[in-house]
Amino acid sequence: MARSTQAQKAKILNAAYRLLSRRLSTAESAAVLSRESSISLRQAYRYLEQAVHLEQPVAVAEPALPITFKIPGDVIRTLRTYAAANDLTLSEVLTRAITEFVARASRHG
Fold this sequence. Notes:
Layout: H1 6-21, H2 26-37, H3 41-51, H4 73-85, H5 90-108
Helix pairs in contact: 1-2, 1-3, 2-3, 4-5
């Protein structure tokens, strides 16, 4: 069986949070979560244990998709230097840069 993605885990954790907010018993919540999320009862209890400490639902991240494009070598060296100096991955640097670029272009377009 394949492991759950972070997004899948976040969705189940949020489902557990919603069940707890309905004031169902832990046993009822675990049974519903197990059935609706297709997970074992033991896993459901684990998610409920985590959800009880939440103040609000967790954010469900959009899954990252691979993309390939060409960048000049000097730009890559600059990106790598910046990423290392700021303890970031290249993906994080590029995602932030592209997001900011598109936001600025949208405001001025």
